[in-house]
C-alpha cells in the first residue's frame, strides 16, 4: 500500500488531497472521496485506504484548504456555508480535485467514480448534475438540496446510488421527492436506498450527537458499504 499527500491549487487556495493505492504501474479505476462538513479528516483518508485495499485508487480531496479542519458544529457550518451558497464555486473546487486525480499515472481516466459523505454527498451529486464524466457517484447521508436552474445537464450517463437515512433531520421528504423528479428529468440510472431508523452521519462511528441528529447506525453503515462495493464492481 502506498499513501501520500498530493498538493494542488484552486482559486489561490492551497489544497491537499490524500492518495492511496497499491503498488504497480498499471492504471486502475479510481474513486474520488468527498468529505463532510468538517473537512478532509482522517475518516475520509481511511475510506481512501479501504478503496485502495479493494484494488482502486482512492483519493480524498480537499475543499477547504490545506490543513483546514473544523473543530465543532459552529465552525464546520462556517466553513461549509460559502460553498452551499455558491454551488458553482463548489463544483469548480471539486473539479480541481477530480482533475488532479485524473492526471495521476496510476489512474485509468476512463474509469473514475466519486463518493461523498453529508456535505460531500451533495458535492458528488452536483458533479453529476453538471456533466462531469464520472462512471458513477454515491451519496452517503448526503444533503439533497437541488442545485437550482442553470448549467444542469438534461441527460447523463453517470449512474447514481443515494444512501439515505429515513430519520435524517437535515433532509426533508420534499428534498427526496425533488431529487426523484430531478433524476427522472435527467434520464438518470439511479437508485435510492432508505434506512428507516437511520439518522444523519449513520456511517460514522464517531457520530453520537442525538440533539444535532448525527448518530452512527451499525446496520445502515455495514449495508451501505456493501452496496458501495457492489456498485463499484458494476460500473467499472
Largest sheet: 8 strands, mixed
**Helical percentage:** 25-40%
Radius of gyration: 16 Å
CATH architecture tag: 3-Layer(aba) Sandwich
CATH domain class: Alpha Beta
Q: List the helices and strands in order.
A: EEEHEHHEHEEHEEEH
Average pLDDT over all residues? 95
Number of helices: 6
Would you tell me the structural class of the helices and strands?
A: alpha/beta
Strand content: 25-35%
Count of spatially separate domains: 1
Strand order of the largest sheet: 1-2-4-3-5-6-7-8
Q: How many beta-strand runs?
A: 10
CATH superfamily: Alpha/Beta hydrolase fold, catalytic domain
Estimate the global geometry from the Cα principal axes. Answer: globular
Named CATH topology: Rossmann fold
Low-confidence stretches: none
Distance between the termini: 21 Å
Please tag this protein with its features.
Rossmann fold, 6 helices, globular, 236 residues, alpha/beta, single chain
Describe this structure as you would to a colleague.
The chain is of the alpha/beta class. The chain has one domain (2-235): Rossmann fold. The protein is 35% helix and 26% strand. An eight-stranded mixed sheet has the order 1-2-4-3-5-6-7-8, sandwiched between helices. The protein has a two-stranded antiparallel ribbon with strand order 9-10. Helix 3 (87-102) packs across helix 4.
